[in-house]
Amino acid sequence: MTKLAEIPEWILATATDGKPTLGQLYTPTTGDRNQSLARLTGIWINQNPGISRDGLIEMGLAWNSGIPSPLPEAEVKRTCKSIFDKHNRENQDRDRRENTKPLTFELVQGSKIEPEDITWLWRDWLPCGKLVILAGQPGTGKTTVMMSIAAITTIGGRMPDGTNAESGNVVIWSGEDGIADTLVPRLKAMGADMTKIYFVIGKSGLPFDPSKDLPMLAEHLKSIPDVKLIIVDPVVSAINGDSHKNAEVRKGLQPLVDLGLVTGACIAGISHFNKAGANTNPLDLISGSIAFAAVARVVLGAAKLHTPDEHGHSRIFCRIKSNIGPDEDGIGYDLCLEPLSVRTDIEASTVLWGQYVKGHSRDLLAQAQAEAKNSTKQAEAEEWLTDLLTAGPVASKTIQEEAKKAGLSFRTVRRAKERLKAIDYKVPGKGGQWMWMLPTEELDQVTCPDFTTKKLGQLGKLGQLTEGNIANLSNFTMKNVEENLDNLPSGACQTEQPFFDLEEEAI
């Protein structure tokens, strides 16, 4: 009887945990050799994680050398290799199923896609199924403008350029204006069909959050047919993060883009302009990241003109950007208060649309931006000069120095002086300074700086000027000075320079 080879210890160590041992499989019959090898190979793989193919073959050859009728070496290697490869494939498939998400995309050949025309709620202004941004400075009536368009949409009326609108439902969410006391009165004052207006309102004490609740809104809107327009005011509320970071803005706006695709409605988000200068690219005026303008297919602007245009409009509504149509021209408009027909005690803001205006948004908005900046600076200068002169007359040179410290140009300060109707005069005597003072009805006994030894008496007519009795300075004009200069009595100005020069000193 042939003595069996002794089983190596490293092989015996793998046969544990109640699984078939090598002792049970060590003396297979001739017909069971392949089956026994396959079973043992599976055991070795499971009990030796990370074993290599060569390591498995080595174990198979060792086993084969100890059985009564060994298999051909090539067959042992082939069996071990086959079991090893099958095990690896099964593991890879399992890992793929566990770690891979369901496929969310497909590749479609371009030849299978039929071209489609863009549909519009308002031709070249408000596209259906796409995101639009309307931006402008506070006070330009952006929300009122969108309420006007909403009202027109509900009744299928005429858009501001005269084109017909297709009637449909409108959905509105506002995080800034009251619904009952602001938006509803405006819509009613502009003739909206209120049965086609739907407001998004929080429930159970929780406010609606556009940055989280848009998917739920999209699901709910399936029950409302024919939604043409969805207004989100302000659109920055859709951003759950930093509105100045490109990636976070794009991520936050994507649900709005998806909402447009699902509903087919125009998504109109309202935003603000920042305080950039008049020569800034209009797209850079939009507050926050440039991604707001990049994601939107159309960007619109609204601005207030401090000087009415040639048509008398006080405001301008224009296209700043469009990826799908014209990107210039605008329409003038004005805001006015109208009483409600059913409640005449309630007045609401309405839009009075005006003439179509040709031109690029940079030019149309530049005037408004420049005038807004100038108007703000002028108001600042007037307030500053009033405060400076409240205590009494101040020397012109002192005013120049203080204006420079305050960051005001002297040209702007002089315009402020003219608007305030402030008075300038020159103190009598050699080296007398030019002084500025605020107009007042009671100028009696006013003491001038640098002229403390003399007081200005009750003011009378120019022809009565003396050092102790000066004409009514607040009514002086250059014209009456010139007309009456020859009438000055002898001794009126006994100085090297006349009390009032015909021209203010060069500044």
CATH architecture of the largest domain: 3-Layer(aba) Sandwich
Distance between the termini: 130 Å
What's the story with the biggest beta sheet? Answer: 9 strands, mixed
Number of strands: 14
Runs in which pLDDT lies below 50 for 5 or more consecutive residues are 14-18, 441-507
The amount of beta strand, in percent, is 15-25%
Secondary-structure map:
Layout: H1 9-12, H2 22-25, H3 33-47, H4 53-65, H5 73-99, E1 120-122, E2 126-127, E3 131-136, H6 142-155, E4 169-174, H7 179-189, E5 197-199, H8 210-220, E6 227-233, H9 246-263, E7 266-272, H10 291-295, E8 298-304, E9 315-322, E10 330-339, E11 347-357, H11 361-389, E12 394-395, H12 396-405, H13 410-420, E13 423-426, E14 434-437, H14 478-484
Parallel strand pairs: 3-7, 3-8, 4-5, 4-6, 6-7
Antiparallel strand pairs: 1-2, 8-9, 9-10, 10-11, 12-14, 13-14
Give a written overview of the molecule.
With 507 residues, the chain is an alpha/beta fold. The protein folds into 3 domains: 9-99, no CATH class; 120-370, P-loop containing nucleotide triphosphate hydrolases (Rossmann fold, 3-Layer(aba) Sandwich), CATH 3.40.50.300; 424-487, no CATH class. The chain contains 14 helices and 14 strands. It has helices spanning 9-12, 22-25, 33-47, 53-65, 73-99, 142-155, 179-189, 210-220, 246-263, 291-295, 361-389, 396-405, 410-420, 478-484; strands at 120-122, 126-127, 131-136, 169-174, 197-199, 227-233, 266-272, 298-304, 315-322, 330-339, 347-357, 394-395, 423-426, 434-437. The strands form 3 sheets. Strands 5-4-6-7-3-8-9-10-11 form a 9-stranded mixed beta sheet, sandwiched between helices. Strands 12-14-13 form a 3-stranded antiparallel beta sheet. A two-stranded antiparallel ribbon has the order 1-2. Strand 13 and strand 14 (434-437) form a beta hairpin. Helix 3 (33-47) crosses helix 4 (53-65). It is elongated and about 135 Å long. 32% of the residues are buried.
